[in-house]
Amino acid sequence: MSRISGVDIPKSKNSVIGLTYLYGIGRNLSKKILFNVGIDENKKVKDWSDEEISILRKYISNNVKIEGELRSEIQMNIKRLMDIGCYIGTRHRKCLPLRGQKTKNNCRTRKGKRKTVANKKKVSKN
């Protein structure tokens, strides 16, 4: 197994797909990285030489934010939005959808399990 920044990349995968196992690298960025480093996209991970792996590690560590560094940056951005009290920050604080989705029927993932609210009983006139 090849390890890049603490993540094992499966040997049987294609180079482009293998790099996507790193948090913060998708297919397009993976293709750009492989092009800049000079590794063939169609090559399997098990066919990488030790030189290629070390070049990849250096390139990724110098040019791309991935894994823990990226996660902490995202959390800091969310915290900043919550601190300044902007609309998206208040939606984060209330655990509601952020980008204008309707909340009457959907957004169960964001709101969590349903909480049933009992109806008030009608007062009878006697």
Per DSSP, the total helix count is 6
CATH fold topology of the largest domain = Helicase, Ruva Protein, domain 3
* Arithmetic mean pLDDT: 90
Low-confidence stretches: none
Distance between the termini: 80 Å
Oligomer: single chain
What is the correct CATH architecture of the largest domain? Answer: Orthogonal Bundle
Give the strand tally. 2
The proportion of residues forming helix, as a percent range, comes to 40-55%
Q: What is the number of independent domains?
A: 2
* Helix/strand order: EEHHHHHH
**Main β sheet profile:** 2 strands, antiparallel
- β-strand percent reads under 5%
Give a verbal description of the structure.
The chain has 126 residues and is mainly α. The protein folds into two domains: 2-63, Helicase, Ruva Protein, domain 3 (Orthogonal Bundle); 71-126, 30s ribosomal protein s13, domain 2 (Irregular). It contains six helices and two strands. The chain has helices at 15-19, 27-37, 50-63, 67-84, 87-94, 108-111, and strands spanning 2-4, 7-9. The chain has a two-stranded antiparallel sheet with strand order 1-2. Helix 4 (67-84) packs across helix 5 (87-94). The longest helix has 18 residues, at 67-84. 10% of the residues are buried. The model has no long low-confidence stretch (mean pLDDT 90).
